[in-house]
């Protein structure tokens, strides 16, 4: 909406409001329903539209008592208010915290605005419910018990029409309405702060209240996305030590599909599809503390228990010297030397303000590595913001990264966006596929890195940002520089420390990785494994999709298991089997540099035939490893000697992988 249209709309709103003042009906559709309802309430309650704002705070002793009673809310809100203030960077905004009656408990913000607001009775101790102050975001959010934005002429009292305000109710961990958070500014300058923004801040306050209220309980943080655990959007369940659910925050209720009343009847294992003791055991064993677990109903979530504290320790059989607590990156160390080297190098950079460039093929685990690095850094409490530079259309990436002010685009009313760089303030910005960034953007990014400040599109003031930068690419940036596609100066900025992650086919820890992923996939219980045949196939596959592909293959195979716990070749997905079938690496290959062998025509006519071939390959490999000793090979494969003989009869006499030392005489031992 253009300025003119906005002006015309506000004029209409003002004339509608005057109609309501005069006791006439307002035309439906001209004003938001929530505003009209509020005006109607104000008129019914006899609120005087042109009344002077009275400075009538509640008496001093009553205020002291209120502040005391609301100590927990104020404590929970203070860090959020501070963070918001920092973000606003002296923009003409103010943040107000009210109690459940609408009494102002805190009011901070831009000095000029605060002064104007004080003159209109926005002060600590003054009540801002609708009865006292007419339609206003705080009072209307209180009356409606939902987030509202009240802009300019939508205010019922004339003297408040200079403001634009957005407010949302705050609930305590028991579901009781406990206060309101409001962000206001001048209506002439800008539109209301978007409701989701205020809701996010409220969510943060509510999560904070949870932590304070249930300091002696077990707090379980969970979300369907692992990267959302620890953020404002996470679900939090409060559990007694016996596994009874005491409470759950709003995000948690939504994820679990419960309401607060119903939660009181639940135990951990009636919400999650896992025994509580087993879950705690699993948390103890998990290096990073993040465990995948199913909700009843099948939704998979990632969960962790509040760091360090509230998992009741197992009574020790005998005292052991305490082991150093595992660190997040440790959980990526499954035994491969190149990965260990990458972890060591990355650790040296932590906290040193060095930009890190992670190189590796697609799916090699670059983003997972970056997340663990962030979790181990002093910034772990800050956000981890990932941007895939190749996935966002070129026309959008600039605004996505650097943000835009409201009205920066034609059409005017499009809401502002702070952008990913500013979102990462205090935390880590992860730029994936940096080699795909357009040259113009590279220049802007370089400026941000040099100035440590970001200027949103349409903005006037640069916004200082404090970020750790981790970039990733599967491309060779040096050759992109040589081709003139990547700025050399940016390359040096990004490459404070280069880390290389090996492709899966070069890793020496495949078996450990498989077990690790199976453990992750199943919440550690019961224990799943792959059969020796499958492991042999895995070892001989080139894994073009690297860890991502391995993860997907195991996930799909687990879904095919019935009662057993061992993944056999016939559990593997058909497309994977075909891929293996057409691209097996030669047995003598050392795995160091090989890409995929040229695809060969499939040897079988259908999946069943291909599976048979796979089994033969596995047998062949086992026999080779055991120097032709069929008994040992059979034991290793977990099949009978007869099975091996039967399968061997199917082996083509020209079996391409038949090793030279496979003497006929040994067959039959
Ligand atoms: N250390 C690990 N252990 C187990 N699984 C992993 C590990 N690292 C990555 N994965 C699996 O591989 C998937 C892809 O990882 P990630 O997104 O980090 O790769 P990437 O190198 O960033 O890929 P791309 O280049 O395509 O963006 C993850 O979602 C996860 O399933």
TrEMBL record:
Residue ranges occupied by any Sigma-54 factor interaction domain in the UniProt entry: 332-559
Pfam families for this protein: AAA_lid_14 (PF25601), GAF (PF01590), HTH_8 (PF02954), Sigma54_activat (PF00158)
An MF annotation (GO) of this entry: sequence-specific DNA binding
Biological processes annotated in GO: regulation of DNA-templated transcription
Entry-linked InterPro entries: AAA+_ATPase, AAA_lid_NorR, GAF, GAF-like_dom_sf, Homeodomain-like_sf, HTH_Fis, P-loop_NTPase, PAS-like_dom_sf
Xref: PROSITE patterns: SIGMA54_INTERACT_1, SIGMA54_INTERACT_2, SIGMA54_INTERACT_3, SIGMA54_INTERACT_4
Region named Disordered: 312-333
PANTHER family according to UniProt: TRANSCRIPTIONAL REGULATORY PROTEIN (PTHR32071)
Protein name: BmoR
Organism: Thauera butanivorans
């Amino acid at each position: 909406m253009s300025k003119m249209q906005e002006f015309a709309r506000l004029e209409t709103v003002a004339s509608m409001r005057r109609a309501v003042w005069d006791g006439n009906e307002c035309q439906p559709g001209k004003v938001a329903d929530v505003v009209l309802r509020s005006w109607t309430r104000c008129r019914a309650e006899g609120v005087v539209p042109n009344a002077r704002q009275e400075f009538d705070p509640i008496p001093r002793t009553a205020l002291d008592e209120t502040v005391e009673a609301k100590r927990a809310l104020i404590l929970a809100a203070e860090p959020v208010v501070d963070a918001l203030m920092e973000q606003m960077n002296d923009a003409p905004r103010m943040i107000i915290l009210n109690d459940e009656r609408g009494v102002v408990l805190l009011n901070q913000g831009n000095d000029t605005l605060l002064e104007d607001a004080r003159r209109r009775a926005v002060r600590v101790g003054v009540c801002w419910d609708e009865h006292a102050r007419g339609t206003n975001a705080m009072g209307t959010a209180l009356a409606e018990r939902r987030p509202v934005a009240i802009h300019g002429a939508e205010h019922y009292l004339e003297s408040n029409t200079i403001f634009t305000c957005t407010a949302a109710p705050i609930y305590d961990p028991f579901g009781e309405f406990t206060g309101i958070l409001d962000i206001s500014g001048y209506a002439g300058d800008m539109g209301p702060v978007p409701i989701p923004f205020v809701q996010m801040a409220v969510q943060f306050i509510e999560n904070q209240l949870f932590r304070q209220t249930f300091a002696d309980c077990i707090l379980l943080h969970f979300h369907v996305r692992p990267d959302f655990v620890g953020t404002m959007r996470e679900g939090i369940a409060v559990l007694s030590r016996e596994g009874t659910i005491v409470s759950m925050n709003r995000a948690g209720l939504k994820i679990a599909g419960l309401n607060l009343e119903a939660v009181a009847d639940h135990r951990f294992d009636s919400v999650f599809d896992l025994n509580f003791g087993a879950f705690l055991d699993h948390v103890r064993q998990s290096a990073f503390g993040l465990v995948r677990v199913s909700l009843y109903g099948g939704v998979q979530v990632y969960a962790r228990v509040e760091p360090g504290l509230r998992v009741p320790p197992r009574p020790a059989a005998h005292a052991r010297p305490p082991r150093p607590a595992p660190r997040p990156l440790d959980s990526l160390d499954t035994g491969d030397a190149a990965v260990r080297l990458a972890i060591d190098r990355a650790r040296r950079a932590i906290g040193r303000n060095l930009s890190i460039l992670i190189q590796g093929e697609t799916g090699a685990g670059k983003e997972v590595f970056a997340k663990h690095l962030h979790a181990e850094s002093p910034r772990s409490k800050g956000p981890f913001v990932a941007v895939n530079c190749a996935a966002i259309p070129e026309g959008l990436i600039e605004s996505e990264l650097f943000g835009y002010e409201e009205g920066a685009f034609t059409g005017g009313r499009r809401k502002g966006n702070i952008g990913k760089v500013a979102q990462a303030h205090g935390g880590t910005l992860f730029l994936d596929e940096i080699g795909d960034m357009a040259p113009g953007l590279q220049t802007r990014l370089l400026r941000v890195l040099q100035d440590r400040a970001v200027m949103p599109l349409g903005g006037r003031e640069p916004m200082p940002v404090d970020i750790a930068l981790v970039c990733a690419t599967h491309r060779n940036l040096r050759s992109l520089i040589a081709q003139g596609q990547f700025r050399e100066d940016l390359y040096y900025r990004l490459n404070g420390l280069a880390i290389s992650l090996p492709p899966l086919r070069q890793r020496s820890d495949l078996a450990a990785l498989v077990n690790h992923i199976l453990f992750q996939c199943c919440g550690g219980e019961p224990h799943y494994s792959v059969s020796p045949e499958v492991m042999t196939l895995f070892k001989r596959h080139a894994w073009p999709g690297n860890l991502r592909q391995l993860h997907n293959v195991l996930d799909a195979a687990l879904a095919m298991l019935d009662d057993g716990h061992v993944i056999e070749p016939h559990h593997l997905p058909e497309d994977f089997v075909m891929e293996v079938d057409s691209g097996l690496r030669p047995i003598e290959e050392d795995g160091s540099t090989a890409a995929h062998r040229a695809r060969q025509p499939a040897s079988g006519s259908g999946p069943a035939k291909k599976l048979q071939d796979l089994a033969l390959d596995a047998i062949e490999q086992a026999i080779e490893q055991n120097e032709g000793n069929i008994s040992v090979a059979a034991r290793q494969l977990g099949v009978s000697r007869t099975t091996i003989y039967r399968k061997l009869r199917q082996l083509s006499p020209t079996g391409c992988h038949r090793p030279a030392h496979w003497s006929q005489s040994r067959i039959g031992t």
